[in-house]
Amino acid sequence: MLSSQKLAGQNEGIYKPIEGLQGPCKSENHDLEHRKKMPCIQAIGQCYPDYQFTAETFEKLYCSDKFPYDEKLKDWVRKLVHQSGIETIPSSINPAQFDEPAIPFDKDTPVDEHNLYRRAKDPWCPTTKERSLIWEKFAPKLTIGAAKDVIREWGGDPSTITHVVTNTSSGTHMPGLDLAVVDALGLRNIRQRICVDNTGCYGSFSALTVAQAFCAAEPDAVVLVTCTEVCSVHINKYSTDRSEILGNIIFGDGATSAILSSGQKGDWQMSPIRMVTAPPSTRDYVSVKLTDQGYLLYLSKYLAPCLHTAVKPMWRDMLKDSLGVKESHDCDWAVHPGGKAVINVFHSEDLGANLTEDDLAPAGSP
Q: What is the pTM of this model?
């Protein structure tokens, strides 16, 4: 495996670069033409479930006799949840069930968000089927809620929407979330709809890339984009690897949405999306695998150094190309909240962005 870890004995925020990154690849001439066709984001929406997990919720679950963890692992979990910078995590699962004892298993007791973990035959560890039932209930609900919210924010006529793009990586169901949106909103003029699924943390960019392509190909296109995750159904007491536990603790539930179309002067025009491809040795740094106990979410401790290597040589060009500014403090930053280590990359000294913790505070908690 290529080296991609913090330098031993070095100060916090000093990273050893990995080798073999490819990109971002771009053609200047293409970008000039491409930029002319770039759509505008007309509105952004969101939808969150009714419940929330807190640090106390996770400590109550992971550090109790409900989970077969030794004291060393429990101490690590306590440290993680209280130092993560995350105040609350939206959840479709009612955390009150973790305050109660397990329910004796009865196959005739319907599974719902109030008893998913309590009623499991293997206490506190439901089957993949049981988890999927809750995902199938809330993923469409959140997606539709986000779609309705962005249409309210947009203020346009839903009948003019021509394309629908949906994204999720935390579950699957056919028909897909695209049809859930079309049916719930009564959209009747859809030319194309597509599910861009299982792309993980860059899922929103995958969906927006497809939306951009639709707008470039059809100047009158109005594209509705949604991104949805329901991760609270995948808590697994048999995850003893710290990278697996991390995925369970920092990812929550919710949906976001956007309307894209050609705009006019003053609208928020998008810039071409840049992509960097890390070497094959990094493929398992972020992964989602289907098991008998739901999806296994994995986040490697080497992810942050990999991100640092990719961002360091390009962030200045990104600001210039996208926003026409030179300095990091000439704009606001939105960083994907993939854990405190990921956020810390952006205020590490050797990155040179000079961002403070306050600059990135919104990324810490929804």
A: 0.88
